[in-house]
Amino acid sequence: MASCAKYHCRTVYTGAENAHSDIAETIWKPPLEGYVKCNIDASVFSTDCKIGMGAILRDTRGQ
To answer: From what superkingdom does this record's organism come (predicted)?
Structure first.
């Protein structure tokens, strides 16, 4: 993750044209009964050269 953040910050600050941005729209689907699902996400804040990440565990009912 740190190397990704370094790449992103270097790309933004140098004005490189090959910067990438992957945005995907997904719909959460519950796991099978008796299981939990772990969803994770992360972001790069290029102006501060920082990253943020989060995770959530949910059961079949989304709780």
So the answer is: Eukaryota
